[in-house]
Amino acid sequence: MKIVYLYDGTFPSGAADALQVANTCAALAKAGAEVTLVYCGAPDTTTGKSILQSFGIEGAELEAVAVEVSSFGGRGGQKARFARKAFALAADADVVYTRNLPSLVASVRRNTPVLYDTYRPWPKQYPVMKPLFRKLFKSAAVVGGVFHSSLALESFAKAGIARDKLRVMHNGFNASLYDKPMSKEDAKDACGIDRNKYVIGYTGRFGVKKGTDMLLDIIEADPSFQLLLAGGGGEESLMSRIEEHSQVSYLGWKKPHELPQCLAACDVVMIPPSSAPLSAGNTVMPIKVFTYLACGRTIVAPRSPDTAELLKHNENCYLVELDNIDETVNALHYLKQHAAEAQRLAEASKELSATLTWDARGRKLLDFIRERIEITKH
Fold this sequence. Notes:
This protein is an alpha/beta fold. It has helices at residues 16-30, 48-54, 74-86, 101-109, 122-125, 130-138, 150-157, 184-190, 212-220, 236-243, 259-264, 276-280, 288-294, 325-337, 339-353, 358-376, and strands at residues 2-7, 34-40, 63-67, 95-98, 114-118, 142-147, 166-168, 198-205, 225-232, 248-250, 268-270, 298-302, 318-320.
């Protein structure tokens, strides 16, 4: 089966969506598909091999083609022009795969089989989009939609889209990067952190809308905590606060193959218990959930509807209420004082992660595509 992935982002990139796209393409290729990634960029600037290497992905072959489009008219105009120009490269595809709405629309207009992938609960966030999605998904060209969480899927189902076209396909992690974990002590040494410090870890993009500021509030409530941050991209005022804070070990951006060491240095890894990410709509089932599950450390996270299907309190993580710093600090003290309980939760999360690899997702995706294409033939 030939799959052409239309992605209007750029490579190389440290963005979460680029990571997700590269791993999805690689996993589909490993599952047996012939995959071409069409992305936004200057021609001949990179190759499929170099894209995969930049994310530490091995064992897959990928053709990559850059399409150069003007940025005139802002991001919206660029997306529309990319969809029109890139679609010419999908003429011989068995199915187009995309997470970009203009590319979905272009496929429907040309009656080309297309699979739509999204983490966003668009119809819930923007009710005005409901008629558009209903119209698109009624088209026989739309093979189906895959969603990163049940929260996102339900928003489409409640908008009147047939459930048989919809599937939850959780994202994943690269299992080969986590098969030989480093000890906590050695990892703390490697990261330049005192072995006696109780380390709270966070990886990814920083920002108030990501809840990173709340992590600083938490450590300021207790001087015994050390915060490990691997990532960046936050507002200037937030970055200044991070860089000047004595309780923060700021490691900067890390490539995927460098993250396991950072996570191994932590006593707990945290999804900020802030309501800001979900209310902003830019973080639904964050991709860090999967590396957190895989790293063998205790997860502290908020009680949130997007992660509820995977993160279960007192089963594989410790959940706290949104925006409650006092409860979060108390939870961290509890885990620090009850090491055996913390270890039990960490082991349970590690066990769950075995089913949530990128490769497993690729096999499920390809099975779903084949199933849906066969149904549309009859």
